[in-house]
Amino acid sequence: MTGGERGDWSVLQVSGELDLVTSPVLRQHVHDVVAEGRHDLVLDLSEVLFCDSSGVGVLIASRRLIRSCQGSLRLILPDQGAAEGSHVNRVLGALGVRRLFEVYPDVTAAVADDARPLSA
Prior knowledge:
There is one protein chain. The chain has 120 residues and is α/β, with parallel strands linked by helices. The protein has a single domain, classed as STAS domain (Transcription Regulator spoIIAA, 2-Layer Sandwich), CATH 3.30.750. It has four helices and five strands. The chain has a five-stranded mixed β-sheet with strand order 1-2-3-4-5. β3, α2 (53-68) and β4 (72-76) form a beta-alpha-beta unit. The chain is globular.
């Protein structure tokens, strides 16, 4: 997991698996960003190959935390790419929770001043 900033946005690039073992790491990174006073966060999940219920849980908890700070959480979940789309995108859609998130095809689109999320 790597982090950076793009303007007013903090960006976390997540790769590999988002599961019982790795989701606490993401949760801690999100909490660290918020503790630094940054409440606008982009999670780039385009390189996540697997996501289980623990991963979904940390995404929902991150959304709740960011919203409680009057911030915004944006996810990068491309429709096309490795294996015809993001695994996380398919998991969130199958569970019916994708609509809870603002989803963008890439970081550039997510941090743009006139950003418009992809439809659920």
